[in-house]
TrEMBL record:
Pfam families: YicC-like_C, YicC-like_N. It comes from the Bacteria. Residues 1-151 form the Endoribonuclease YicC-like N-terminal domain. The keyword Membrane does not apply. This is YicC family protein. InterPro entries: YicC-like_C, YicC-like_N, YicC/YloC-like. The keyword Hydrolase applies. Belongs to the YicC/YloC family. Keywords: Endonuclease, Hydrolase, Nuclease. Residues 174-286 form the Endoribonuclease YicC-like C-terminal domain. Its cofactor is a divalent metal cation.
Length: 287
């Protein structure tokens, strides 16, 4: 299921913005992009995401802005730089080597340049987490709204299958007489009416019609559709459950079609399959 949420928090010194986007996935796949200043918070953010976000391919992006742009600027230890430079210059003079950029060498010596963005204090960390939790709330609200729209569409299609099942039952009253008529006509044309043993014919017809009986398929299909609709009332994640139920619905619809032996019923079965395919496509977006 797609999702989107964003939030910003600031305290006068720093502003954190958090953006969360997701696509559907069978598992929770997290991709975090964090500024270096909060890189040590990655484990915390991953842990909270696993608690608060259902499965999906989730991208979380954090940006930071400081009111004082020099607050996290690197600082130079001037005394240490001069000491390194002097020592390097003395060695270069002794070696009569004037081709070396001594200043660049001294600048790259240990502890000359100190980065001030390695860590954040508790107050700044709190601003980040507040922005994160707000973004997650917006993200989950987005998903819930999309889920409600999907639920209505899925319910409508399951109800259409039940409607089509009612149409099948309405046509069944003419199904058996038509089957009997076709078989009887075939025998009459093949061997002649006077050569047909009516008792044997009736026995074989009962056996054949019993094999084509779809009562069980209708009962199971109606049960699966009702269970499918009932599953939306559960507070738990229903995507996998609905997927399993839709597979069972498909089995009954296929069997119903193979046993139909009636053009009108087979056309209705095709419409059932169309609705079921749309259900399966939508279920790919359900958690």
């Amino acid at each position: 299921m797609t999702g989107y949420g964003t939030a910003s928090k600031e305290n006068g010194k720093v502003k954190y913005s958090v953006e969360i986007k997701s696509l559907n996935s069978k598992f929770l796949e997290l991709n975090l992009r964090l500024p270096k200043v909060v890189s040590d918070k990655e484990l915390t953010l991953r842990t909270e995401c696993s608690k608060l976000i259902e499965r999906g391919k989730v991208n979380l992006n954090v940006t930071v802005e400081y009111a004082d742009q020099t607050a996290k600027a690197s600082s130079i230890n001037a005394d240490l730089l001069k000491k390194y430079y002097g020592q390097l210059q003395q060695i270069a003079n002794e070696l009569n080597d004037t081709n070396v950029n001594l200043f660049e060498l001294a600048l790259n010596m240990p502890e000359v340049v100190t980065n001030n963005d390695d860590t954040v204090d508790d107050e700044e960390s709190g601003v980040l987490m507040d922005a994160f939790y707000d973004a997650v709330r917006h993200f989950n609200t987005f998903r819930e709204d999309e889920g409600n729209v999907l639920a209505q569409d899925l319910k409508k299609r399951a109800e259409m299958i039940l409607t089509y099942l009612g149409e099948v039952e309405a046509l069944e009253v003419e199904r058996i007489p038509l089957i009997r008529q076709r078989i009887e006509q075939f025998l009459n044309d093949s061997v002649g009416k006077e050569n047909v043993d009516q008792n044997r014919f009736e026995q074989e017809l009962v056996y054949y019609i019993d094999k084509l009986d779809v009562t069980e398929e209708k009962v199971r299909l109606r049960s699966h559709c009702n269970y499918f609709l009932k599953a939306f009332d559960s507070a738990d994640s229903n995507g996998k459950k609905l997927g399993f139920i839709s597979q069972e619905m498909g089995r009954e619809i296929n069997t119903l079609g193979s046993k139909a032996n009636h053009a009108g019923i087979q056309q209705i079965v095709v419409r059932m399959k169309e609705e079921l395919e749309k259900i399966k496509e939508q279920l790919l977006n359900v958690l």
